[in-house]
Amino acid sequence: MSRIEVEHLVKDFGGRAAVNDVSFSVERGALCVLLGPSGCGKSTTLRLIAGLEEPTAGRIVIDGRDITHLPSKDRRIAMVFQSYALFPHLTVAQNIVFGLEVRGVARAERDARLGKVAALVGLSEYLTRKPGQLSGGQRQRVALARAIVSEQPVCLMDEPLSNLDAKLRQEMRVEIRALQQRLGMTMIYVTHDQVEAMTMADQVILMKDGAIEQAGSPVDLYQAPATVFAARFVGAPPMNLIAAAGPEPSVVTGVRAEDMRLAPPTGNGADAEVTSIEYLGADTIVGLRRSDDGDAILVRVPGRASARIGERAALAWDPAHEHRFDRASGRRLS
Ligand code: ATP
């Protein structure tokens, strides 16, 4: 197990900073998710740690050892890419042990590790197949097995599940998390999917425009988003932003869909009209619009909502569930 420290990391591409003064640390055996929208710099950060890019400035330290300028192959890091990067002409077994062969690990040792890892990821019956004869999920498992078999203390993953369908993604994120914990790997996992971040991470680094917007546990990010951006990016549906109540125009108030209730209409201008109903099984997301603001306000109602499109309702919530942000800076006030 290894501790990873990233200090003031900068990467310029032609005068534009893709990564701009990023610092964070990952504890031994923890799973850290780099989360953010497309282009925010999360893949570049991962590639800098892997040694696939040279930083413009900053340091990367693993277990007290400065690896910033070490060649990628000497960093003791395993990596899983979105594309899986499998060799199509090699069998599953050959793909899994390829890196061990390159490193000169003896045959008997390779076979022993292969057997163990294949069983671990459920590939024992597929070892003689070629990647072209596997499903997407099985290919993903080969890439995972190849990372695990290397027994490196650090594993980096770049959107490893993005080519899989929703059901398989859900299964694989549970599997990856269980394996990471069982093997005690220190892992950095890049995704733009906030559900993956929430369900898998010990620690989330939310990035925007090359910088860290907020770092913390999934619960921290959900319960106390540091900015309007964090409030809207983490959680589904995104947090409702309520139009400024008259006395505090400099404040934006946020309330999550599950913290809102529908109440009988009051007959005054604050009532809203139901404009959408999305039945999800366990609950229903009811969308409403008020005359004074543009964005629909979403309310999560347990079970099947009785509301109908076009109906009017009042919106109610407990002020204790309000998140307050400064309108100008977007930063959290309370
Ligand atoms: P995605 O989820 O789309 O992969 P990301 O958050 O991982 O996005 P990066 O791939 O790190 O983002 O890219 C960050 C920024 O740096 C983007 O604006 C991208 O266009 C730019 N960038 C990345 N690699 C290079 C490169 N080799 N040359 C020039 N610009 C690059």
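DSSP finds eight helices and 18 strands in the chain.
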